[in-house]
Amino acid sequence: LAMRRAVSLAPRSLAPRLSLTQAYLDAGRPADAVSEARRALAVVREIPADRRRELTRLVARGLADDKDLAGARAVYEQAIKDDPDGAEFRLAYADLLLAQGDTAAAEIQYRIVRRREPGNVDAARGFGRILAARGDFDEALKEAGESPQPLGRYTLATVVFIESANQIAGRIAQTRTAWEEGKITREAFYKAVAAHAERATRLVALLTTSAPPAEVPEVEKQAHKRRVLAGSLLSQAIASLTGYLETGEAAAAARSR
C-alpha cells in the first residue's frame, strides 16, 4: 500500500514504480507486475539504459511467471533486436527456451554468446546443461579444449560432470536391478555397462583437462578435486562391474558396488 501511494504521489518517478513492480513479483502477482513495469516504460521520461533493461527483464519475468510464455519470448526477441550484441537478454531468452524444452533454439543462443564472450560463465553453464542432457561428451571435450577462457572451460566441464555423473550412476543402478530381477539378459546388461564405462572415462578426461583457474576461491578448487576423485571412483566401479560380467569374479562384483 505504501509503495502504491508513493507511485500515486510521484507517477513519473522511476524508483517507486520499480520497487512496486518487484514487490508484485515477490508477492506472486505477475500480471500486476507486468502492468506496472509497462506503465513505467510508458510514462517515465528519460529512463537510463540500465533501468530500461531492468524494466524489460521484469516484464519478461512477469509474463513467464504468469504462464504467458509466448509473450515472454516476444519481449526477449524484441530486446535482442534492439541490442543484438548484448548478452543479458540473449541468455535470459536461452534459459526460457531451455525451460520450455526447446533445446535446439536455446543452444543457438548460448553458442552466439559463447562465440562473442568465450569466458561468459552463464553461457557455459547453460550450454553445459544441454550437452549433459544429450550425453554429448565428445562435443563437451571439444568445447572445453577449444575454449580460450579457463573460467568458461571450467564452468562448462563442471556442469557437464555434475549433470552426467548422477545420470550415469542412476542408469547403471536401474539396469543392474533389471538384470538381477531377470528383466534383461546378461548380454544386454554387459552392453549397457560397457557404454556407461566409456562415458565415465570421458567425464574424468573432461574434468582433468578443465582445471579451475587461479582466481576461483580455494573452496572451489577443493570441490573440483573431490569431483575428480568421484569421477575416478565411478569409472573404477563400472570397470569392476564389467570385469565381473566378463569373468564372474566375486571380488569384482563387490568392488563394483
Overall geometry: elongated
Average pLDDT level:
88
Give the topology string: H per helix, E per strand: HHHHHHHHHHHHH
Helix fraction?
A: over 70%
- Helix count? 13
What proportion strand? under 5%
Give start-end ranges of low-pLDDT stretches.
250-256
Biggest sheet record = none
Terminal Cα span: 60 Å
Helix-and-strand structural type: mainly alpha
> How many runs of DSSP E, i.e. beta strands?
0
Q: Kindly provide the radius of gyration, computed on alpha-carbon positions and rounded to a whole number of angstroms.
A: 24 Å
Report what the structure shows:
80% of the residues lie in helices and 0% in strands.
Task: Briefly characterize the structure.
This protein has 257 residues and is mainly alpha-helical. The protein has helices spanning 2-9, 14-26, 30-43, 49-65, 69-82, 88-99, 103-116, 121-133, 137-146, 150-180, 186-208, 218-247, 250-256.
List the helices and strands and how they pair.
Blueprint: H1 2-9, H2 14-26, H3 30-43, H4 49-65, H5 69-82, H6 88-99, H7 103-116, H8 121-133, H9 137-146, H10 150-180, H11 186-208, H12 218-247, H13 250-256
Helix pairs in contact: 1-2, 2-3, 2-4, 3-4, 4-5, 5-6, 6-7, 6-8, 7-8, 8-10, 9-10, 9-11, 10-11, 10-12, 11-12, 12-13
